[in-house]
Design a protein that fits this description.
The complex is a heterodimer of chains A (378) and B (76).
Chain A: H1 3-35, H2 37-44, H3 61-71, E1 76-82, E2 89-95, E3 106-111, E4 117-120, H4 125-134, H5 139-168, H6 182-196, H7 198-212, H8 214-229, H9 245-255, E5 260-265, E6 276-282, E7 293-298, E8 304-307, H10 312-325, H11 330-373
Antiparallel strand pairs in A: 1-2, 1-5, 2-3, 3-4, 5-6, 6-7, 7-8
Helix pairs in contact in A: 1-4, 1-5, 1-11, 5-6, 5-7, 6-11, 7-10
Chain B: H1 2-34, H2 36-66, H3 71-75
Helix pairs in contact in B: 1-2
Classes of the chains: A alpha+beta (378), B mainly alpha (76).
Chain lengths: 378, 76
């Protein structure tokens, strides 16, 4: 590689890293507790626990919906969801209006058998950490900004891999030189940790970028696929009385055999039209449990209106989520995720140190050069 | 010809380990998603491999720093 090419890549690596450093440190530091948010919520008492029951007869969806409305008088239901990993709990989202902002929603957990209110969900210190991690309390603009930082991170990784060759070709793999220079030792650690974590960092970085586009993708789906699915209902008024949630769930199960219900979006919410319930169905394998299939049902009668697989970009979004969160391989994978996150913090920190050390090393040379050029006072 | 084969050998020496680790990581990330419980075990080993490499380098460096125990002391 020519010296000029190395210099060019070095400029790309330095500046893409420097511009995004502060935000990447924020993402890594907030991402670390988020890996264990279930455990932390449980420890701090913010995770609702299901009651112990002798019988396994579950409350019907409508009973849970009634309990959710009774718990939040004057508000409306937006979503009811069933988490595969927490079968003892049903979660309900209420808001001031069906299309109310996500930040104004109240999320409560109900016992899956007795439909008793278990407590609020998504509150406590982890909510602050999550908001910092996803949008820095700046809404969609914050999300897109962090997405742009993620793209800079990916560019820094690629340029780092290119620079790995000229910096390490005379060394054995994983060599940390035993020199007196702290800068050289940190350069070796920066190169080693950076290159061994490259695949993980790229996957987590790019899936994070994809997640920042979630709302845009959902809007695109609504503007294209959903619009064509609800076209026969164009011009019809919104239903005054909604169909029973029991009927909606039962018919959705019939329309998607072999699949189970993940969540139901009520008419008028961002995931459906003003006339339809949307039941999002999931499969039973590790992969298909992530790939949801929407079933649209008439809001007034509960009859199935249409069902289609989600477009590729939304499927990519759904698959990208576990790859970003690292929550799909049990506690050992979470611990490995945390270790890799910690190593990424070391790479970012050492990169910043190397840049500062190089500037400090250059500074006296510049001062000397200036002193040599400066006229001697008479 | 000789120069280019040397260069290729050097390139392999520099990038072989990082490429293997990257391939292992990708395999593990997908295995847990596609192969259920068996895939999780694969993921623990392969996604954890980069952490193990860094830990090994750190331990090796620590032991080099401390150095071998002197025969006089160990003899006592």
């Amino acid at each position: 590689m020519r010296a000029r090419t190395v210099r060019l890549w070095s400029v790309v690596h330095t500046w893409t890293s420097l511009v995004s450093t502060l935000f990447l440190l924020l993402l890594c530091l907030t991402g670390l507790p988020l890996i264990f948010h279930h455990e932390i919520d449980e420890l701090l008492g913010y995770a609702p626990q299901p009651e112990a029951h002798a019988s396994a007869a579950r409350a019907t969806p409508q009973v849970v919906a009634d309990a959710a409305l009774a718990a939040d008088p004057g508000r409306v239901l937006q979503y009811v969801s069933w988490d595969k990993d927490e079968p003892g709990i049903v979660t309900a989202f209420t808001n001031s209006a069906p299309d109310g902002a996500a930040d104004n929603a109240t999320v409560r957990a109900f016992d899956a058998v007795s439909a008793k209110l278990l407590g609020p969900v998504g509150v406590g210190p982890m909510l602050i950490v999550l908001k910092l991690h996803t949008d820095m309390f700046a809404g969609q603009a914050g999300k897109l900004f962090l997405g742009a930082m993620g793209l800079l991170f990916a560019t820094a990784i690629v340029s780092g891999v290119v620079l790995y060759w000229p910096f390490t070709r005379r060394l054995r793999f994983a060599t940390i030189r035993d020199t007196a220079s702290r800068r050289v030792r940190w350069l070796d650690w920066h190169n080693l940790i950076g290159v061994v974590t490259v695949a993980w960092a790229l996957v987590v970085g790019l899936t994070g970028v994809v997640n920042t586009w979630a709302e845009l993708m959902l809007n695109q789906w609504k503007a294209t696929e959903l619009t064509s699915m609800v076209a026969p209902y164009a011009g019809k008024p919104s239903p005054v009385h909604l169909a029973s949630l029991d009927d909606v769930v039962a018919r959705a199960r019939q329309a998607a055999p072999g699949m189970d219900i993940a969540f139901v979006a009520f008419p008028g919410t961002p995931f459906t039209s003003s006339h339809h319930f949307a039941a999002f169905m999931r499969g039973d394998t590790a992969l298909t449990a992530r790939l949801l299939k929407p079933v649209l049902l008439d809001g007034a009668t509960g009859e199935v209106a249409d069902t289609r697989a989600l477009p590729l970009y939304l499927q990519a979004l759904l698959i990208s989520q576990p790859l970003h969160f690292g929550d799909y391989g049990g506690m050992p994978l979470k611990l490995i995720w945390a270790a890799l996150d910690g190593l990424t913090i070391v790479v970012i920190g050492s990169g910043l140190y190397l840049w500062l050390a190089r500037r400090r090393r250059r500074a006296p040379v510049r001062t000397d050069a200036f002193a040599r050029r400066a006229p001697v006072p008479s | 010809m000789h120069g280019s084969s040397d260069r290729a050998r050097l390139w392999i020496r520099v990038f072989a380990a990082p490429i293997l680790l990257a391939a292992a990581t990708m395999t593990g990330l997908l295995a847990a998603l596609l192969w259920g419980t068996a895939g999780q075990y694969v993921a623990w080993v392969t996604v954890g491999a980069p952490v193990a490499v860094v830990a090994r380098a750190w331990v090796r460096r620590r032991s080099q720093k401390i150095g071998p125990i002197s025969p006089t002391i160990s003899g006592k």
